[in-house]
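Fold this complex.
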Amino acid sequence: MSPQKKLLMIDDDPDFVEGVKSILVGAGYSVDAIYNPKDGLKALQTGKYDLLLLDIMMGRGAEGVMVARKIRNDPKLRETPVLIITGIREQIAFLFPGGPVHPHFVAVDELVEKPVEPKLLLERVSALLQAAEARRADVK
Amino acid sequence: MDSLPRILIIDDEEVVRDSCTQILTGMPVDLTTAPNGESGLRMVREQIPDLVFVDLKMPGLSGFEVINAIRAFDPAIVTVVITGFSTVDSAVEAMQNGAYDFLPKPFTPDEFRVITQRGLEKRRLLLETAALRRERDMLQQHFAAIVSHELKAPLGSVQQNLYALAQDLQTVASPEQKARLERMVASIDSLLKMIHGWLRAYSTDFGQLRESFTTVSIPAVIAQAAETARPHAQRKAVEIQTLVEGGLPAVRGDETTLVEAVVNLLGNAVKFSRLGEPVRVEAAYREGAVTISVIDTGVGIPPEELPSVIRGLATSKAGLEAERGSGLGLGITRRIIEAHQGTISVKSDLGKGSTFTLRLPPADTPADGQASTDAPGAPIPQEGGLA
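Structure:
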């Protein structure tokens, strides 16, 4: 078995984080949680994470979008897969009028809606991790 | 009235127009005059004056016609009639028709100034009232949106934790415990769907909703709505009976919000039903419209409350004490139906029950699978209970 994957979750709702974390830990992942975008970004830059779970609708407006933009512009973080977890899709449509339902905040991301069922959550996480591994193998 | 208040004088007598102009010279107003009703109305439309003086007796359009036209154009424009001393009766009539005041000829400069001031003051109050009303309407809408947002996040968290709990307990929970968890998940899921629908109803520009209209099968809508309302109905031993006419035309619309509309009506019907009484949903094609009626034999609505109930602004006080409804549901239902170019109506007998009827225009093109008995994935009986 490959070594345990390290995931970081940035979401300002501790209750929600608990619900997601428990599912992921149950599936054998290690999960750190940060509850605000600023510290979350710092943790992502200093720690070595295999995947980020990001809420884009934090705080007033969509501070998570700012985190996503910084990740996209950071050469070291750009390849980190991101699973965007957000409220209803309508809000996305509101933020990006006329845009596609999934605006692709970072180069490698997926989007799921809150609340997310365990099966879907684990599928998406595993798919993103596998795709990242495949990319690394290509580079070598 | 940020700029100078605009005053328009419509009178066929030049001497009246001139003397009025002289009297108001030096006052901070923007004054124009017109010699007849036709040109006066044109100026009203162009300038949107704050205050209009109208002579009652003019050749061509009469003062009454001018007042009515102004009122129809913008009821917030204040009108004052100018009238001969002998025709005070017609001044009274003009005021009954919406004129704010009257100025009897001959008048002194002071009388004219006082009436002008009063007219402008009235205009200020009218504008202020309109602004306050707009603000209240906005608050009312935002309130619902804020409440929905505030509910959505915590409910989503509860759901997420239920998912996690179900996962954790997968190997140790008994079948009964698993079933209980599933019921909780299902309940919260329907609450989340409802909030989602509310947010959508409030934040959606209905013109936009129309862009995503598809052909919607009414039997499918009713089956889904009955399914959603069933758990609540079962708790009150209320049976939901559906009766869908065969060969019902489809409608153009948004299925999710149409289901929401029927769920709202069903929820109310169950809420105001007595224990064990059935609630009926009937769909039919009547007088060129697809009708969906939700019929209960519950507590009914007092006649004087019917208008506000349908506007979605109030909840009937006749509601059973423990059942506080939200008028919001009906208001949203009305807006959903109006977005579909439909209408909603209600008949109610206090103590005997209520019937809410939605009327929707049929789609131009027939939908697939129109037979009422084989709505996709959700067959519903021609008659009988789903609950």
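The two ends of chain A are 21 Å apart (CA to CA).
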